Amino acid sequence: MRTFGIALLLVILILAGGTAQGQNMSEASSSIPSSVVNDVAKARLATAKYAMDVEQAKADGYMIITQMIPNMGYHFLNPNISGFDVTKPPILVYVRNGSAWQLVAIEWVYPSKPAKAPLPGARYGAFGAACHYKDGSFVEAKAEASCAKTNAKTGSEFNFWHGPLTTFHVWAWYPNPAGLFASFNPLLTPFNKQ
Fold it and tell me: Which residues contact 116 (CB under 8 A, 6 or more apart)?
């Protein structure tokens, strides 16, 4: 829990006056449009109740769809949310330290790269076609017909399949020296074995 408190304090300090690279806020924010800074603030306010409370996220309809993806996190999807609204992300990305969970990023997925960026400066990642299971495990598969009813490694029941996706992360809750919209965050390495 102490690690999460320190991480949250680091985020607050970064937003208050500096960055992980030692830049002052005016230098750091000059590369991020003020509209994006405002949208990230709105996203943080809207998701604050989930910041340290994965159980609240689950109660509000988010379900685990991946185990820990190194330098990215555990992904929780709310299948009832669609489209782009910065205050209603369909995916919450967490890291875990023992039994404590911390929200680090929010995410949107698309069947292909959007014609218009959801936020100025958006960068995209990719996630291949996969069968997802109820424990958050997944297996790459080109078609739903290839999905087993249970995951052979974990025994978990099949949940859903999706085709190839374009991903859009916003590191709203954890600093990322790779950038606000990067797919991976090197600062999450200590959480990879949790």
Answer: none
